[in-house]
Amino acid sequence: MIPEDYLLPGAGTSINALPKISLHDHLDGGLRPQTIIELADSVGLELPSTDAAALGSWFSTQADSGSLVDYLKTFELTCGVMQTREGLVRVAREFVEDLAADGVIYGEIRWAPEQHLTRGLTLDQTVEAVQEGLEAGVARVAEGGSRIRVGQLITAMRHADRSLEIAELAVRHRATGVVGFDIAGAELGFPAHNHRDAFDFLAMAFMPVTVHAGEADGLESIRGALYDGRALRLGHGVRLAEDVIIGREDDENTYVTLGPVAQWVRDREVTLELSPSSNLQTGAIAAWGDDLQGHPFDLLYQLGFRVTVNTDNRLMSNTTLTKELALLSDAFGYDIDDLEVFQLNAARSAFLPLDDREELADAIVAGFETA
């Protein structure tokens, strides 16, 4: 699929052509509508529409609810067609192809194996099927003359009780495509400390961790991600802005004070995996506004936090990484230098060895220099 391109205002630079890194992108949130239709027919799953354009519109409309709980309901359909080896392989392959078409040179694909077991697959078989699809996608991209690298982020559902088992699964497959671990799902009421055994195991195995936090819950959730989860990155983390206090000295001057959580995150360069459109859809930024200009992304960026730009779920948000960068550029007047910073932040935050991260950064710099 060829995504819509966007040009940077003034410069006329194609954002699609710029090399990009995707850190927060859910496999079950990035299906092609036509693929859903074909796979649903093969497994007997009823859909609200069998027209690809109409189905795509249905997903984005349903997801645009202002509630994370309602947003997550759309995944019943996408996960429903990802219960067989064939379905997982195809979805993973197309996912990589679509990333590459959007100019992504490195992508971490997160997904929850425990949600794909209803038709007899084991946990290990699901991981193997997704890896097969990812490798097939990489090969197809190479055949087209491009290059992309990808890795799996194995996710445990925070409302379930299988996190230690899923952590063990992630470590078991670290030599065959898995680069890290995540917990996701309903955040409020399901704190990270419920999964302390899993996080302890991962720490002992030196497996890097990102934790969904600061999206549907606030600072205490972020504290848990940092303390219990030893998170190197925060999935969204947008509500960290609740710990940023802005005061006024006089009519012309303001001051900013960071609370202890925000101070820790900034000083230790814990990465924020911000997803602008998704954050707006789920109500994560409701405290700051009801449009993208109210997103605290720019505040966090200007204060020196390690911000990255992500899509979260491309199908539900009807978006691409190119589109997210364009939306931010329109909202905050960012130019190509700002976009390069976001990609270098992502390169430095990838769950890869240092040499590989430096290679990614070099590729970003080279790509932006020739843009």
Automatic annotation (TrEMBL):
SUPFAM superfamilies: Metallo-dependent hydrolases. One of its GO terms (molecular function) is hydrolase activity. Its EC number is 3.5.4.4. It holds the Pfam family A_deaminase. Residues 19-365 form the Adenosine deaminase domain. It is an enzyme of class 3 (hydrolase). Its cofactor is Zn(2+). Keywords: Hydrolase, Metal-binding, Zinc. InterPro entries: A_deaminase_dom, Ado/ade_deaminase, Metal_Hydrolase. Belongs to the metallo-dependent hydrolases superfamily. Adenosine and AMP deaminases family. This is adenosine deaminase. It comes from Cryobacterium breve.
